[in-house]
Task: structure prediction
Amino acid sequence: MASKAREEDFSYDLNSIRRASRDKPLILLQEFYETSYPSKKQLEFLIRTEHSYSDVLVLPLVSRITDALDAGAGFERYLKFLRETMGLVETFNKVLNETYIHGINVSPGRPKRVSPVSPNHSILSFGFGADSFGDLHRPKVIVKEPQEERPVPQRLFYRGDYGDHLIKSKAGLATISPESTGFSLQECLGNRNLTRLYNAEQHSLEATTLPRYIEPGRGEPDVERYVSGKQYVERDTLKQMRSLNASVRLQRRL
Result:
C-alpha cells in the first residue's frame, strides 16, 4: 500500500467482508499485481492482513510473474520468494504444519486452431506437485484493434491419451471413448457450456485415480511413468515435471 490512508480503506473493506460472512469460513486471496516481487515491507503488510482476516493462511499470489515462469532460474527465484514468505509467516507465530498446493487459473494450453488433437497441460498439474487445480477462467486482457471474432472450436478431453480432441461431427466421437461420463457426447458438440462441464468431469475422474501413482505402492508406477504412457504428453513437459516435482517435494519436507 502506498499510504496509511489506503491501508485504512483496505482494512475497512475487509472488515465489511468479514461482517458479511457472518462467522462463515473466510479465505483471503491476495494478488500482488506487479512484475517484480514485493519488498519486505509490502510482504509484511500482506502477511499481517492474511493473519488478521483469513481463516486459512494463503501465500500472496504473484500471477504476473508465475504466468511467465520457466523451469530453470525463474522457478528457483520463485521458490526463494516462497521460502522468504514462509519464514516471515513464522515470525508472526504461525507455523505452517501442513501445506496444500492449488493451481489457480491453469491453462490447458494453446492449441492450433486446426490441430485435430492438442496436448492437455492442465491435467498434468498433479504431476508437477499440485494437490488440485482450477481451470482457466481469467483470460489475459490484451488491447488490440477491433477485428472480426472467430469462434474458438471446442475440444473434448480424453483420459486415455491426455489429448484435447477437436471433434466437429458425430462420426468424430469414435476417436474418444470415455470409461465413464454422465454426459451425452453428441449433445456436447457445438455446446460450449456442456463441453466445459464434460471436460471438468473427466479431469475430476482422472484426479481420483492419480493419488496411487503420486504415492505409489504395491508395485504401481509413479506418476511420471504413468503419464509418460499417455500419447499426447510431450517429452519436454516430462523433463519439466521431473525437475519441478522434485523441488516441490523437497520444499514440503523443509
In short: Residues 104-138+153-253 form one domain. The chain has two domains: 4-97, 104-138+153-253. The mean pLDDT is 80. The CA atoms of residues 75 and 181 lie 37 Å apart.
